[in-house]
Amino acid sequence: MVQHDFKVQTKWHGGRNEVGNVTGDIINEQISIPSTLGGNGVGTNPDELLVSAASSCYIISLAATLERAGYEDISITQSSIGTAIFENGKFRMDSITHYPEIEVAPHNKESLENRLPKLLKIADNNCMISNSIRNNVAVHIKPTIK
C-alpha cells in the first residue's frame, strides 16, 4: 500500500459569523460560512472546497486518461456544480455534476465521440476524490466535444 499525507491547518476564532483561515503547502485562504447559508461569505468555504477538489481531481484524471488513450493537443474547460440539500435536520452534498468541454483536433473528434463514454468512466475511477465520495455523493459527468 502506498500512502500520501496531505496536511492543512485551519484556524478559527469566535462564533459562526467570524472568518477563519486554511493553509497548506500551497493553499492560503480565508474561510467562512457562505452568505447563501446565512454567513458573511468571506473567502471560500468547505462546500466550495469540496466541489473544487472534485472538479480539479476529475479534470486532471480526464486529461491523463485522454493522453493515455492517444489524444494529443487537447484542451478541457470544465464547470462543476455541487448541489447541497437539507434533510433530516442536516446539510449534505447530494451531487456534483461536471461539465467538461473537450476540444480536440477535427480529425480526432469522431474517434473521441465513440470512445468517450468508456474514457469518462476510466477517468472517474482514477480520480481519488470521486473514489472518496462515491456512495455518499452522486457524481455526474455531462461532456461536450468541440
From TrEMBL:
Pfam families: OsmC (PF02566). It comes from the Bacteria. Transmembrane segments: none annotated. InterPro entries: KH_dom-like_a/b, OsmC-like_firmicutes, OsmC/Ohr_fam, OsmC/Ohrsf, OsmC_Ohr_Peroxiredoxin. PANTHER family: OSMC_OHR FAMILY PROTEIN, OSMOTICALLY INDUCIBLE FAMILY PROTEIN. This is OsmC family protein.
